[in-house]
Amino acid sequence: MNKLYYAPGACSIGIHVLLEEIGKPYDAEAVDLRSPPPERAFTAINPKSKVPTLKRDDGSVLTEFPAIAYWLAVTNPAAKLLPEGAEAQARALEAMDYVVATMHMQGFGRMFRPGNFAPSEAYHDAVKARGKQIFENGLKVMDGALAGKDYVTGTFSVADAALFYVEFWAAARMGMTLPPNCAAHYARMKARPAVAAVLKQEGFDA
Ligand SMILES: N[C@@H](CCC(=O)N[C@@H](CS)C(=O)NCC(=O)O)C(=O)O
Predict the structure, then answer these.
(1) Is 43 helix (H, G, I), strand (E, B) or coil?
(2) What is the CA radius of gyration of the chain?
(3) Which H/E stretch holds residue 6?
(4) Are 162 and 81 in contact (CB under 8 A)?
(5) CA dihedral 86, 12, 71, 131 (to 10 degrees)
(6) Which of 17, 81, 104, 206 could staple 196 via S-S, CB 3.0–4.6 A?
(7) pLDDT digit string (tens) for 162-202?
(8) Is the C-alpha dihedral spanning 7, 159, 53, 118 positive or negative?
(9) CA-to-CA separations, 63 to 68, 90, 105, 124, 125, in angstroms, rounded
(10) Mean pLDDT of 117-142
(11) Predicted pLDDT at 206
(12) Looking at ligand 1, which atom is closest to the CA of residue 37?
């Protein structure tokens, strides 16, 4: 059985949603990210000490959100986690990469861990402000991508699971107002039984 290592409310929530959408049994173990990586037992499983981490049936470990999402999609075709056709699939991967690499790592990364970008505290407010700018611009880009559509590529895909986790951070954790198409997408995602189940499992109100 696949086993997801996650932290409640972390980016791993997107992979948790995909596992629920697939509907096959899986294990999930919460990891405490508060201690420094060398002190985490979990570091022995994933030397990067990051969630999401997926330990698969054969014991091998897969890391990085886009790689896990892609692998789950191609190994579970019945769940239709990728749209049909090369163009739509490329668009799903494009959106997922933008969410993870830019909105999360460059945007939220600056807001939550300014010390990773500038050792001197004197620059931390400026780093956080730049992170917020990157994140808000990301929301604008994704709002445009959603225009006239229920999901990023029209039908639900891995891209929506990625977009959901940054929408969740923005709306539920930071109290930000989402632009209209993202707000509708976030509501639509929360109405999916898989998303409601994951929010409950991770200890959040749906
Ligand atoms: N590039 C990684 C990012 C994963 C990541 O940054 N995860 C965060 C939680 S949202 C984490 O595990 N942080 C723990 C730490 O930095 O010590 C991915 O795509 O999976």
Answers:
(1) helix
(2) 17
(3) strand 3-6
(4) no
(5) 40
(6) 206
(7) 999 999 999 999 999 999 999 999 999 999 999 999 999 99
(8) negative
(9) 6, 21, 15, 29, 31
(10) 97
(11) 67
(12) 17
What six digits make up the tokens of 181? 């198409």
Site of tokens 């830019």? 102
pLDDT, tens digit, for every residue of 3-27?
Answer: 999 999 999 999 999 999 999 999 9
Q: Is 10 in the pocket of ligand 1 (CB under 6 A)?
A: yes
Q: Which of 5, 45, 50, 165 to mutate to test the pocket of ligand 1 (most atoms within 8 A of CB)?
A: 50
Reduced to 3 states (helix: H, G, I; strand: E, B; else coil), residue 62 is strand
Which atom number of ligand 1 is nearest to the Cα of residue 12?
10
Which protein residue has the closest C-alpha to ligand 1 atom 9?
10
* Closest-lying ligand 1 atom to the alpha carbon of residue 165: 10
Peptide bond into 52 cis (omega under 30): yes
| Cβ–ligand 1 contact at 52 (below 6 Å) | yes
